[in-house]
Design a protein that fits this description.
single chain; mainly alpha; 17 helices; 6 strands; 62% helix
Length: 443
């Protein structure tokens, strides 16, 4: 991911420095296990020397990889050189024990699992922060009335705070998905070439994974099964889709013809190079765009589940990009959306203005109920309300002054209901009667 859309915490987790630090931890833990179980003839002083002198330089690894075209071998060469330099008093260098019985993916896949677990913990924490903002805003706007819309068309009066409540629970499901994905990926594999433990005691794997707080992949084939990684990418895609949904709602409500809310617009910020008046929802648009990248990356995860025989590396190159970029994009969007919702501008007066613009059309469902309660058949009641509602619509569309739905119904001879009774259908309070019950579900 380019720096523009990266966060420092995800960048650190997937940095080369951190990757090689984890690889070194895996290698040293494997040697500790070898010494503990005595399956190779490594002496305590050799293990101590390895642990003391094992180190690396990113520059040196890059030089070696440019020669051998294998990042793990380049890493081992450089680490061995540092061990040899510090162990000159030994007749045989302790570095010979490094990577004993292991294959590349024992180190790389186990290390990647650690990185992904840390990244999930990171984005989960940021998801919780966004959820907390939604909870706060839901309570803040519990009594704020706005227009509810379906298909983009006015429907019924709605509570603005319910939008945030809806997002709160959507983010709760995101957190649950992240927990499950973490459970699936939090495994290591120290099983050797093709995963048969031909040069390793399975106890080595158990020791290393326990120390790293990972489970053991019960049957690895030199690589950890890629359905686990696909699960992670699919989870990030689903969570990003949730962020896009929230951002889209903000964009819709910021449109000039609606303008009920607005994302923060900083002092000195510019919206257009040509039109100085523009205040565009650029952050929410950016979130929508990056969410598409995360969803596209999920396909990479699905395609990487299938490998040739016990393994190939067709997954390796695309995975290095897809996993990092997905975590980066999701975390970036989380932080940006948290900022947007924290400082969002809410125009309550415009919400009331928009409610009144419909001239009572948004109360049509309640008007039907009043007519039914008075003894009219449902279809007859529906037709009476619809015909009068269409008259109001036509006047609104033509920009004409006209009467509201209530007045048209009162003047309709088919509508025999008392005006006082009919007026009750046009009281917005009836749309609030279950709000407390809904909000009681918020934690």
């Amino acid at each position: 991911m380019i720096d523009r859309y990266s966060t420092d915490q995800i960048s650190e987790i997937f940095s080369l420095q951190n990757q090689f630090d984890i690889w070194l931890d895996v290698e040293l833990l494997a040697l500790e296990a070898h010494y503990k179980y005595g399956d190779i003839d490594i002496k305590k002083k050799e293990l101590d020397a390895i642990c003391k002198y094992a180190s690396f330089s990113l520059k040196e690894i890059a030089i070696e990889e440019n020669k051998c075209h294998h990042d793990l071998i380049a890493f081992l060469k450089v680490v061995s050189k540092y061990i040899d330099k510090g162990s000159k008093s030994f007749k045989l260098s302790p570095s010979r024990w490094l990577h004993y019985g292991l294959t590349s993916n024992d180190v790389k896949d186990t290390g990647l699992s650690i990185q992904i677990v840390r990244a999930i913990d990171c984005v989960k924490n940021d998801t919780k922060k966004l959820q907390t903002i939604c909870l706060k805003k839901a309570k803040q706007y519990k009594d704020t009335l706005c227009v509810g819309r379906t298909h983009g068309i006015y429907a019924e009066p709605y509570i603005f705070g319910l939008k945030f409540a809806n997002w709160f629970f959507a983010l709760e499901r995101c957190i649950e998905r992240l927990d499950f994905a973490r459970q699936q990926i939090a495994v290591g594999s120290i099983s050797g070439a093709v995963g048969s433990y031909s040069s390793l005691d399975p106890r080595i794997e158990a020791y290393v994974c326990k120390k790293l707080k990972l489970g053991v992949d019960p049957v690895s084939t030199q690589v950890i099964a890629r359905d686990r990684h696909a699960q992670v990418l699919a989870t990030l895609a689903t969570c990003s889709a949730t962020l896009e949904n929230i951002a889209t709602q903000i964009r819709l409500m910021q449109q000039s013809d609606c303008l009920e809310i607005e994302e923060p617009f900083a002092k000195g910020q510019k919206g257009s190079s040509a039109m100085p008046h523009k205040r565009n929802p650029i952050v929410c648009e950016r979130i929508c765009g990056l969410s598409r990248v995360v969803r596209a990356n999920a396909q990479v995860g699905f395609d990487s589940v299938t490998l040739w025989y016990e393994r190939d590396i067709s997954h390796s190159s695309c995975e290095r990009t897809a996993l990092v970029d997905s975590f980066q994009a999701y975390d970036y969007c989380l932080q940006k959306l948290t900022s947007v919702l924290s400082g969002i501008k809410v125009y309550k007066e415009k919400m009331i203005h928009n409610l009144n613009r419909s001239r009572g059309l948004i109360y049509s469902s309640k008007a039907i109920n009043v007519l039914i309660d008075a003894g009219l058949g449902r279809q007859i009641a529906y037709d009476i309300v619809q015909e009068n509602a269409m008259k109001v619509w036509n006047e609104i569309q033509k920009g004409k002054e006209g009467t509201c739905l209530l007045e048209k119904l009162v003047s309709d001879p088919r509508c025999t209901v008392d005006k006082t009774q009919l007026q009750k259908a046009f009281d917005y309070q009836q749309f609030l009667q279950s709000v407390d019950k809904i909000f009681s579900r918020l934690k």
